[in-house]
Amino acid sequence: MKQINKIYINGEFVTPNGTETFDLINPTNNEKTGEVVLGNEVDTRMAIAAAKKAFTAFSKTTKEERISLLQKLHKAVSKREDELVSVMVNEYGGTLQFCRMSVQNAISAFTTTITTLESYDFEKTVGHSKIRFESLGVVGIITPWNASNSFICNKLATAIAAGCTAVIKPSEMSAAQTQLLTECFHEAGLPAGIFNIVNGLGNVVGAEITQHPDIAKISFTGSTLTGKAIAKGAVDTMKRVTLELGGKSPNIILEDADLEKAIPMAVFGAYMNNGQACIAPTRLLVPQNRLNEVNELAKKAAEQVKVGNPNEADTLVGPMVSTKQFERVQSYIRLGQEEGATLLAGGEGKPEGLESGNFVKATIFTNVRNDMRIAQEEIFGPVLSIIPYNNEEEAVAIANDTTYGLAAYISSSDKEHAERIAAQIDAGRICINGFSHDPYAPFGGFKQSGIGREYGVFGLEAYLEPKTILA
Ligand code: NAD
What we know:
alpha/beta; seven-stranded mixed sheet; six-stranded mixed sheet; 40% helix; 471 residues; Aldehyde Dehydrogenase, Chain A, domain 1; binds nicotinamide-adenine-dinucleotide; Aldehyde Dehydrogenase, Chain A, domain 2
């Protein structure tokens, strides 16, 4: 049984003041694997004090010094790549393929940040003024459970590049992943206080970070509901916020798309990260006159999806992270049927032979109307909604008829055609004919999918305060 009973403050693993514990459960079989002792407000305040103290010297470091620290972190995290993957699969239930990719993203966050930093100029001339981009201060980093290490690494790398120090609050459900990552960070041997990590609950540690006057900025990834609570709390001390929130991303299949290719890709894409992905294309918009063909192809694709043990290399969908998440997804599958959508594949209950874990059948609804709750609300499980449209104008209107605006996807045999549609979609990232990623391009949401952007220069400047000097 794993006991995670330390948090990380001022360069040391220390026993938290908090004594409450949280059970760690393997989502593949629901067996208890360990416990984490949760930090409390006192621990959070100690971590903030350590980060504040370290900021004075750290904010004055040169670009070269920061690059050297990022290189050390990169080396230390790379060394334990295989262990990081294995802990993530077992704690979180992500598939081997997904967890490998996610850990590689975590590792490459350091190198891509170094590249951004190398060419970034912290002083610029605008008009007849000199602009200095100064480190913001202590940053609170609050992350969810669905790709814990890569969020932590990306946010911490950016904070360090900007000369900010950090207090990190990961999801309590990612404690084993955090423990291993913290060991890597510790081995990198950074000066004390640059980063501090406090395990704990959102309404305790997260709330303290949100209200504390010595936190200058919060970089949050998580649900829109929590993001709103953080934004409201942060305003009292005028904290800067970067909020990466939920999504209900449309995937528009244009008339000229190759359905044989686009539909299986759309189905597998909707199930990325077991369907627990903020950018998952969960609304599949297809021409009404091709609906029968689409249904047939989609059903066939869903039947090919292996739901099962995430440790098996060919598994595409592993278990939901918790029984709570499993129940949430089940309730939406019931709701879809009550709302009158047609169940095309999957449905309620666990797949045969997988009764002990939080497994959900690869599910597709068709004949979905965009005003149904299954088309409007983030389900965060392997559930795809197929929504027919009559013409392109209607497709664009449906795509934009959502409170979210994180990502969108377009399939077409004509790139310019797809780009004309992309120009009309309200979303922070639009992928044409696939699911590509660019770690230098801004990432973030329109509307209620968030505030601000991460990655590259846009991400870096969100940790900096411009100061204009007129002489
Ligand atoms: P969540 O909002 O429940 O929790 C995220 C983090 O916030 C956790 O560490 C949690 O403990 C903390 N928290 C909870 N209440 C808090 C409070 N009152 N004050 C401060 N912190 C608090 O999200 P989750 O269930 O862990 O993750 C899933 C959600 O994250 C989904 O909605 C998903 O779309 C979103 N997400 C967004 C992105 C993105 O980049 N836009 C990426 C991944 C996940």
